[in-house]
Automatic annotation (TrEMBL):
Transmembrane segments: none annotated. This is HAD family hydrolase. CDD domains: HAD_YbiV-Like (cd07518). It holds the Pfam family Hydrolase_3. The keyword Metal-binding does not apply. Its EC number is 3.1.3.-. Gene3D superfamilies: 3.30.1240.10, HAD superfamily/HAD-like. It is an enzyme of class 3 (hydrolase). InterPro entries: Cof, HAD-like_sf, HAD-SF_hydro_IIB, HAD_sf. It comes from Robiginitalea aurantiaca. Keywords: Hydrolase.
């Protein structure tokens, strides 16, 4: 496979760049520096909040474009390139529906801070991994601040317990099963594909020179925005079907494997 046309690499975080311990490998940072010297640009695209992505990629943060909140927020060197907040009235309608689903944990994702009701101890432990900044509030319905996304967690299965209940909102909102336990609900244009298209235009790099790595349904649109679209071996069946190519799992360094090949070809 000839990877030499690649000028932009975009990678999802959880299940893709991060291993099962939610770590970025030292090898990735080495490859990043080597490829950057050869003119390759990088972006991280995740359902995570900006702060959570930034913590994982602190050593190279100033050299990255960050696509956060599933594409609802894009920043480069602290400068905002895109913001697509949720309509407040639609947001409250969704929140009313979520209150009817037992076992759910709902988070309102602002640009810099997430908001949620005081959680159970079990869910509080998860928060520290996925959210670098959050606040506890007394209520969510009618919350006055601008919100980018509603993130909903279920300890058993998001696809089985949450998605069927919020699927009727798909005619007005973007509803994505973004992980085995997560569903994300956002503005129809707040998705990684729309955000990546803006980044490509901003950098002057076309889809034919873009490489994307993903593993779950919230990656589908951005996989369609790149010729070099790679599904992780651990990917959801929809992603395996959509991507042109495959690589090894996140725990076997699938992203690094392809980037190593790219580096060899660029010389």
């Amino acid at each position: 496979m000839d990877l030499s046309p690649v000028k932009l690499v975009v990678t999802d975080m959880d299940g893709t760049l991060l291993n099962s311990q939610h770590e970025v490998s030292p090898r990735f940072f080495e490859l990043f520096e080597a490829l950057s010297r050869r003119g390759v640009r990088f972006a991280a695209a995740s359902g995570r909040q900006y702060e959570s992505i930034a913590i994982k990629l602190t050593p190279i943060l100033d050299e990255l474009v960050i696509i956060a909140e599933n594409g609802g927020l894009v920043r480069q060197q602290g400068r905002e390139l895109l913001s697509t907040p949720l309509d407040a009235k639609l947001r409250d309608r969704v929140l009313h529906r979520l209150e009817e689903i037992p076992g759910t944990h709902t988070i309102l994702c602002g640009k810099d801070t997430a908001y949620l009701k005081p959680p159970t101890p079990e869910f509080e432990n998860l928060l520290k991994e996925y959210y670098g900044a959050y606040e506890y509030v007394d209520y969510l319905i009618g919350f006055p601040e601008e919100i980018m996304k509603i993130a909903v967690y279920h300890f058993e299965s998001s696809e089985a317990h949450i998605y069927p209940k919020v699927q009727p909102f798909e005619d007005q909102l973007k509803v994505k099963v973004s992980g085995a336990h997560w569903v994300d609900i956002s503005d129809p244009l707040a998705h990684k594909g729309h955000a990546l298209k803006l980044v490509q235009e901003h950098l002057g790099i076309p889809p034919e020179a873009t490489m994307v790595f993903g593993d779950y349904n919230n990656d589908l649109e951005m996989l369609g925005q790149a010729f070099y679209s790679f599904a992780m071996a651990n990917a959801h069946p929809n992603v395996l079907k959509t991507a042109r190519f495959r690589t090894e799992s996140n725990d076997k360094g699938g992203v690094e494997t392809i980037l190593s090949t790219l580096l060899q070809q660029l010389g």
